[in-house]
Write a structure and sequence with these properties.
Largest sheet: 3 strands, antiparallel
Mean pLDDT: 90
Low-confidence stretches: none
Strand order of the largest sheet: 1-4-5
Number of strands: 5
Order of helices and strands: HHHEEEEE
Number of helices: 3
Strand content: 15-25%
Length: 160
């Protein structure tokens, strides 16, 4: 009888380990998806040239267009609505919060060292660029893992 109880406890323990491993793997894939989405959004935003300044010979990013396109790309890649809430039936369960969106333009001296101590992020930009930090919360599959929240950072430069 004691062997049967030990066997059942062992099966329960193995199932718990399996759930933990599966949740960790899904969390890692979700982090990769979030990082790719933030990088794509920052890159798309960084390519929005200000045509009026370009006519004057100044290479610059249009901040309004850059921000709009960054949000569009983020929403498209993470399948979010206009308020950054997840669409019904998608993987994410909570709002993607854009913590930082900053356009570094020609008014700075390059190379420019961007530093944000609040989110422990620094990057050196050689040209005008965009910095974006987004907070995502992992929708746990099982309750084995504790809550996971990431502050995903991305930066991109204007390519010319």
């Amino acid at each position: 009888m004691y062997k049967l109880i030990a066997f059942l406890l062992l099966i329960g323990f193995v199932m718990l380990l399996h759930a933990l491993q599966a949740d960790e793997e899904i969390a890692l894939q979700a982090l990769f998806q979030g990082k790719r989405s933030v990088n794509r959004a920052a890159h798309a935003a960084a390519q929005q040239i200000d045509i009026q300044k370009l006519k004057e010979g100044i290479v610059s990013i249009d901040p309004a267009e850059a921000e709009q396109l960054a949000y569009d790309y983020l929403q498209s890649n993470l399948r979010l609505d206009a308020a950054n809430e997840p669409l019904p039936g998608t993987f994410w369960r909570s709002r993607a919060e854009v913590l930082v969106f900053e356009v570094i333009n020609e008014d700075r001296t390059f190379p420019y060292m961007y530093a944000n101590s609040a989110y422990d992020y620094s990057v050196t930009l050689q040209k005008p660029g965009v910095v974006m930090i987004v907070r995502l919360e992992y929708p746990r599959t099982y309750t084995v893992l504790g809550p996971i929240t990431w502050e995903i950072k991305g930066a991109a430069e204007l390519i010319y």
